[in-house]
Amino acid sequence: MTTHPSIEQHPDLAEMRSRFERATTTPRAQAVETLALLTGVYLAASAWIVGFNNLGPLTVSNLITGVAYCLIMGGFGNAYERTHSMAWAAIAIGAWTIVAPWVIAGKMDTTRSVVSNVICGAVALLLGLAMAGTAAMGGGTRTRPLRGARGTNLDPMV
User: What is the pLDDT of residues 101-155, one digit of tens each?
Assistant: First the structure.
């Protein structure tokens, strides 16, 4: 009877984890995460900061999406390898924030609410895109070249 090592000890998994750790410890990734948390806090409190808290449905929407954005984007520093795909949810929250004043039932599209939501939504969307691209742009390098079917090197950098 043969025993197989667990997937946790697979060399590719260890390499991927170290790459994700390197990606999230860069100053760029830390700055994106900090700005994203501030954006989420602002989004959650924007109705009271800007002064459209009398628009109940939009106020509730911004509060919920702001808290969700903070929770999604706040998990990257601690567990990027398990949460990096959630950056796409953060992008969707940013897009929702932009269109919410026009989509939510009732007259929610006041000048204050539109300007606040469009700017905050655009920032949230861009920060989500930056976080989604962190592994690709700021991640590690491959340690082994790609090999073709006959052992030919497919990596142009080697």
Answer: 999 988 888 889 899 999 999 999 999 898 887 655 544 444 444 445 555 544 4
Q: How many CA atoms lie within 13 A of 47 on its CB side?
A: 21
Give the integer Cα–Cα distance in Å for 131 and 73: 8
pTM: 0.69
153 beta partners: 147
Q: Which residues contact 142 (CB under 8 A, 6 or more apart)?
A: 155
Classified as helix, coil or strand, 104 is: coil
The enclosing H or E element of 74 equals helix 56-74
Query: Cβ of 43: how many Cβ atoms within 10 Å?
Result: 29
